[in-house]
Design goal:
Layout lengths: L6 H16 L4 E6 L18 E8 L1 H10 L16 E9 L7 E5 L2 E5 L6 E2 L12 E3 L6 E2 L21 E2 L21 E2 L19 E2 L21 E4 L2 E4 L4 E4 L17 E2 L1
Parallel strand pairs: 1-2, 2-3, 3-7, 6-8, 8-9, 9-10, 10-11, 14-15
Antiparallel strand pairs: 4-5, 12-13, 13-14
């Protein structure tokens, strides 16, 4: 075997190593005040950071920056070179104000979004951030608003904070790799189609007082389980009914059963 060395070969190797370094994992931890996150993100690293942890307060201006770092801009079709895949906001508090962070086309008009409430994951905050694989939401969050994480198709890990009582319509829709959401005991309400298309999700919260239409449509839930203390729902052989068992609310999409036996009280199927 012959081994050749030359300046040309060494240059090629050096370039290959440089390319590998550019695409390596790059982490950053910062603490910020609302609207000031950009001051802590070096411009040269903005689109290189893959793993980011933020503490402090953030508003719409900061959310827009996070979206850009994860590959999206203000508008749905805006694309950036951002490479952010892991985002830890567990020690963050979302506050009102700042710039618009998302623009959604609705018919002939466009609706712009900025945080309007404190301690709420606002609408469309992570909308279609398809590069994110892991998100830790703010522990202070009490609500996850509509479409907050819709279309995060690579998202595999996202625990719902313990303080959350409401998950809005379409909040996690089309998060097809989300296998676990770690539903908190305080959770009371899930909106319509909140987890629609989460084809890997097999969990179901037992403390709900209100479940929106098609909330778990096209998921991997194999059976619904409800506490006997629930005032609103009952589960019979894994199928979800109202408390009186007069109305079938949802059939588990991941079930492999070939037959279904209805309770004698059944009167309608939603």
């Amino acid at each position: 075997m012959k081994i050749f060395t030359s300046k040309k070969v060494l240059t090629v190797i050096a370039l290959a190593c440089a390319c590998f370094t550019v695409h390596a994992q790059e982490s950053l931890t910062v603490s910020t005040a609302a609207g000031k996150l950009a001051e802590h993100i070096p411009a040269a690293r903005k689109y290189q950071i893959t793993d980011l942890k933020v503490s402090g307060e953030i508003n719409g201006t900061d959310i827009l920056l996070l979206r850009q770092m994860a590959g999206k801009g203000l508008k749905e079709d805006d694309q950036t070179a951002g490479r952010l895949t892991s985002l830890d906001l567990s020690e963050v508090r979302v506050v009102e104000g700042g710039e618009n962070y998302c623009a959604i086309r609705q018919g002939l008009s466009t609706k712009y979004y900025k945080p309007a409430e404190e301690d709420v994951i606002p609408p469309y905050m992570f909308y279609k951030l398809a590069r994110l694989t892991k998100i830790q939401l703010p522990a202070s969050a009490k609500k996850i608003d509509k479409s907050a994480l819709t279309g995060c198709t690579a998202l595999a890990e996202c625990a719902i904070p313990e303080a959350v009582t409401v998950i809005g319509d379409y909040a996690f829709a089309q998060c097809e790799k989300l296998a676990s959401a770690a539903f908190p005991s305080a959770l009371e309400e899930i909106g319509g189609q909140a987890f629609e298309g989460c084809s890997a999700l097999s969990e179901f919260p037992q403390t709900l007082a209100d479940i929106g239409e098609n909330a778990f449509y096209k998921t991997a839930v194999t059976a619904f389980s409800v506490s006997e203390e629930s005032d609103d729902y009952a589960a019979v052989e894994g199928v979800l009914y109202n408390k009186e068992r007069t109305s079938l609310i949802a059939y588990p999409a991941g079930s492999t059963a070939t037959t279904i036996r209805f309770p004698d009280e059944i009167a309608d199927i939603e």
